[in-house]
Amino acid sequence: MHEMSLVQGLLGQLHELAKEHNKEKVISVSMEIGPFSGVVIDSFQFGFDILARDDALTREAILLIESPPALYRCCSCGMEMKAEQRPERCRHCSETLLSPVGGDDLVLRQVEME
Ligand SMILES: [Zn+2]
Asked: Which domains does the chain have, with CATH numbers?
């Protein structure tokens, strides 16, 4: 499960931030996980629950995850479609060449510490 190593990376980042700002406790963490990141949000949350509870800095931290919807843009007419999976063809002009729009990465949006 590669989400575990992503959570480990996140915790490392939080430790660095805490050190930088002289903080002792993380209250909340907001993440944005792109629709094309390949990250399973439930697994990420699960990994966080396990690893963060074991860590004095993040023991009580709340993890907030936002995931913008996946969008596909038609290469012919430019229409954008929201879809879980790549649509077969454009709903507007029937073009079959559709390209994904949006993030494929994990972004640390906001961290609240004290
Ligand atoms: Zn189209």
From this structure: 2-69+103-113 (3.30.2320.50)
- Nearest of 29, 16, 18 to residue 66 by alpha carbon: 29
Tokens of 75: 């290469």
The predicted model scores a pTM of: 0.79
Tell how far the Cα of 23 is from the centroid of ligand 1, in angstroms. Answer: 51
State the residue for tokens 């077969």: 88
Residue-wise pLDDT tens digits, 7-41: 999 999 999 999 999 999 999 999 999 988 989 99
The whole-number pLDDT of residue 52 equals 97
Cα 78 to ligand 1 centre (Å): 6
User: Tokens 């913008």, residue?
Assistant: 68
- Rounded to the nearest whole angstrom, what is the distance from the C-alpha of residue 7 to the centroid of ligand 1? 39
82 Cα: distance to centroid of ligand 1 (angstroms): 13
